[in-house]
C-alpha cells in the first residue's frame, strides 16, 4: 500500500465528504438532544401513563436496527435522503440522550425543583430553568461520547444514497476496483475524529471533577 496514495485518499474523502458528514451528525445530535430532553421531562416530571409510553418508545427505538429506521423513513415517508438520515439518526440518538439526561437529572436539583414549584412555576418552567442547566453541564462528557457514536453511525446513510464520507470511500473503491486502501483511509478518518471527540470528553470530565462536579460518561 502506497502511503502517498493513502494520504491523497484521506484528503479527497475529507474535502469532499466532511461537510455533509458533519451536517448529518450535528443535525441528528441536536434533534436527539431536543427530543431527549422532552422525553426525560415526560419520564421524570409527568410520569404516569405518558411517562410509561415514552419509556416504551425509547425501548422500541433502541431495539430496531438503525438502518431499518432509515429505510422506513426514506422509502416509507418518501423524504429527501439527507433529511431521512437526520431524522432517523436523531430519533435513535434521542433514545440514548434521554437516558443520559434522565440519569443525571434524577440525582440533581430535586430540592430546587420542588422549591420552584412551590413559588408558582409550572412543571415545564421549573424543569427547563432549574434541572436542565445543571444537568447539561454534568452531561457534557456523556453527550460528547454520544456525538462520537453518531459520527460513526452517520456512515449508514450510505444505504440510502447520501454522499457522506463513507459513501465517497466506497465509490472510490468501486472505481479503482481496489478496496483495501480506500477503506483503510476512511477508517483512519473516523478514528481521528472520534478520538478527538473522546479526548475532549475526557478533558471536560476531568475539569468538571476538579471543580467538584460528579459527571457521567
Topology record:
Elements: H1 3-46, H2 48-63, H3 66-76, H4 81-105, H5 110-118, H6 123-153, H7 165-176, H8 180-210
Helix pairs in contact: 1-2, 1-4, 1-6, 1-7, 1-8, 2-4, 3-4, 4-6, 5-6, 6-8, 7-8
Descriptive notes:
This is ABC transporter permease subunit. One of its GO terms (molecular function) is transmembrane transporter activity. The protein has 217 residues and is mainly α. The protein is 82% helix and 0% strand. It has helices at 3-46, 48-63, 66-76, 81-105, 110-118, 123-153, 165-176, 180-210. α1 (3-46) crosses α4, α1 runs antiparallel to α7 (165-176) and α3 (66-76) packs across α4.
Describe the sheet with the most strands.
Answer: none
**First-last Cα distance:** 38 Å
Order of helices and strands: HHHHHHHH
CATH architecture: Orthogonal Bundle
The radius of gyration computed from the alpha-carbon positions, rounded to a whole number of angstroms, is 20 Å
Q: Looking at the structure, what is the overall shape?
A: flat
Number of strands: 0
Number of helices: 8
The figure for the number of domains is: 1
- In the CATH scheme, the class would be Mainly Alpha
Low-confidence residue ranges: none
Structural class: mainly alpha
Helix content: over 70%
Beta content comes to: under 5%
Whole-number mean pLDDT: 88
CATH superfamily: MetI-like
CATH topology: MetI-like fold
